[in-house]
Amino acid sequence: DRSRAIDALEGVGTVVAQLRTPDGDIVAGPPVELPLDITPSQLNLLLNELLGQKDKLPYSFHLNQAEIIESLKSTVAEQGASVEETLSIVYVPQAVFRVRAVTRCTSTLAGHSDAIVCVGFSPDGRQLATGAGDKMVRLWDLSTETPKASCEGHKQWIMCLSWSPDGEYLASGSRDGELRVWSVHEQGNQTKKQKKEPIKCRSVFKAHKKWITGLAWEPLHLSSETKWRICSASKDDKAKVWEVSSKLAVTLNGHKAGVSAVRWGGTGLIMLSLIHI
Question: 3-state SS of the chain: helix, strand, coil percent to 5?
């Protein structure tokens, strides 16, 4: 049995082995004398040195198709291999999954004077909106990586941002429960001098008693060109639907704790909100 076979190898200190690929076409150097109690990790170090690899790769090792798990000695005993002959040890490369750290920043966009709390890419991917603790919403041109415009008016930190599906409007919610909708599309028609001025605010709603935690626009295929709607969620346990051009459309009650997120379903029948527990 296995224990007897291991006992029979007690007087054997080393063996001669040849490391090769499964097809035998590549041999890692000449036969080498190995300690019989060598482990797979030690074989891995030896093989990488013999192959001259700078990036150490993992391998599994096999003797007579049996993988060497504990040590060469235990596998020799299990296989009944002769230690008087050169052992043929087959090595097989293992899958490598590497996560490379980001080492280069493409650009740094300076503009806010306090911590940035939320960001959002425009639907066409050409602009980036950022909201911060300085009570400002800023727009950035991603083609040139430069400031494009600013949105001024909030009196507290900007907590969340959301672009309308067509990219015409940008909604922002602040810590004091205020919801503002900005006419971003008008900024594209301004003169060079006008573009230096803050973007015009389309609508202002004192939406909630506590800070706004999430915003969701009505899907584009369901919305009306003249009556955009947006839903706001808040720490005050409520979610509300607003007609951007005018008024509050409906209040969704029932939560016993702050609503932490909201989504508008594509069928127009489902609005999801998650209770923060």
Answer: 10, 40, 50
> In this structure, are residues 208 and 220 in contact, taking their beta carbons and an 8 Å threshold?
no
Report the number of secondary-structure helices (H) and strands (E) in the chain.
Answer: 4, 19
Beta bridge partners of 63: 66, 89
Rg (Cα) of the chain, in Å, rounded? 33
User: How many other C-beta atoms are found inside a 10 Å radius of the C-beta of residue 145?
Assistant: 12
Q: What's the CA gap between 33 and 142, in Å, rounded? A: 61
Both structure tokens of 131: 């909201």
Picking from 246, 179, 235, the residue whose alpha carbon sits closest to that of residue 210 is 235
Copy the structure tokens of residue 251: 């209040």
3-class SS of residue 160:
strand
**Beta carbons of 131 and 161 less than 8 angstroms apart:** yes
Question: Cα 247 to the chain's mean position, in Å?
Answer: 37
Report pLDDT digits (tens) over 14-27: 999 999 998 877 78
Give the 3-state secondary structure of residue 270. Answer: coil
Quote the CA–CA distance of 142 and 121 in Å, as a whole number: 9
Residue type, 157: W
How many Cβ atoms sit within 10 Å of the Cβ of residue 162?
22
Residue keyed to tokens 């607003």: 242
Best CA proximity match to 186, nearest among 196, 205, 199, 174: 199
Residue 139's pLDDT is: 94
pLDDT tens figures, 189-201: 554 555 567 788 9
Q: Which helix (H) or strand (E) holds 184?
A: helix 184-187
Residue 76 to residue 89: CA distance in whole angstroms: 11
